[in-house]
User: What shape does this take?
Amino acid sequence: MHQKTFSRTLLAAGLTLAAGAHAADTGGTAITIYSSAQPGAVPVEFYRPIPGGGTPGGMAVPGYAMVRDTRPMTLAAGRSTVRFTDVAALIDPTTVTFQSLSDPGTRVLEQNYQFDLIGMDKLLQRYIDKPVTVDRAGSAQAGPATSGTLLSAGDGLVLRGADGSIHALRDYGAVHFAELPGGLITRPTLVWDVNASRGGEHQTRVTYQTAGITWWADYNLIFTEGRDANSGTVDLGAWVSIVNQSGASYDNARLKLIAGDVHRVEPPQRVYMQKRAMEMAAVADSGAGFEEKAFFEFHLYTLGRRTTLADNSTKQIELFEQTKSIPAKKHLVYYGAPAYAAYGGPYTERDIGSPANKKVDVYLEFRNDKAKGLGVPLPAGRVRVSKLDSADDSLEFIGEDVIDHTPKDEDVRIKLGSAFDVVGERRQVDFSIDTKARLMEEEIEVKLRNHKDQSVEVVVRETLYRWSDWSVLTQSHQFTKEDARTIHFPVRIAKDGEATVRYRVRYRW
Assistant: This one.
């Protein structure tokens, strides 16, 4: 896949909705989203509507964003009060910066963040000892409205009428208030005490950080079998899902991404979302996609068109166009015994205490390089793999896994599950120990049975866990050393056949 093709759609580790991100833009909104969610770990409740709105258990969406708003403002000369209302409900006020691009001498002397938003409970509490009118619940036959002084708004409403009578209303309809009490506002607001050296219109830029926005990448992989059981090709496409529950919408903005692990000091107490109904946003419209470049020690992706993130919405945008026929390898791996680590001394027990595993794991692996059609940075995300059923031309799901941020020219390995027709069996054939000579010997036998109608290659993975000083004395098959304590035996098994791997290892300490 060419760089230009990839730039048509890439979203990942930090998003930046940005109007004003490019030098040609003189106004608009920009937002850079950084996700702290692990790939595949975001519950479905975050990106589909749930009854009553909000998030499961009141939890905040695991992510944050940097928002930049560039717009004209009319300021009076000298000191004046400016109210800035278009901010996210989950803003971190300590991160706010205000800048006059027209007059660098303009300064904010004081800032207040007002978030006492209007609501039924707050209205009732503000109207204690004040007159209200309450409609009876149900139809008009329920009776006339009740007017009086509100005495209590806890377990129902308690009013005192003009004649001194007391009315306790548990079931009631609309409540009518004379006016909006002072101090309550309809949306979160930044209030600045601004000192401007000149009056008139200023081009201003406001930047702040907000919680309640996250993203994750979703890769869709279609596997096609090759000439043998261990080869094939994959078609790779990718999308990014963006959840915005920050309490603000970002309209007609530009989108960027920063892919990578950006360190951030987490606050001691997480901010929790106000409950709101989630609405599904439309899939991104056509237009220029993402352009990728290296940015510090991360990767920056800039969307070449404007887009909108509505509050309480989920949006999906194509990460990159589908790349077809990428050569892939299907690995069958048998790992019969769990890995035991010897700490402070050798592991001298004859038995490891756990029964041998019989499952043979299945992996798909392909190279992320230009020669294979890719060669682009792949953000961390979840990979879903399907295979075409030729009987009815339908795609059937065959497994999924997560990948970490993967640079170009690296391998991508995806675990799909366990093979049905290939099984393994591991047993200890012999064990001896000489504590005076400080040595142990152990002989292991691994049997593999292939019930498929074609031959397969299986990698037998063995961990030499008893001690770090080991040597293989005899072996039935050649092996490769993966690391200080792991060896691999590649084994070819004929169709409906069986193969046996046997080796003897000596440990010294």
Q: What stands out?
A: Helices lie at 3-6, 120-126. The longest helix spans residues 120-126.
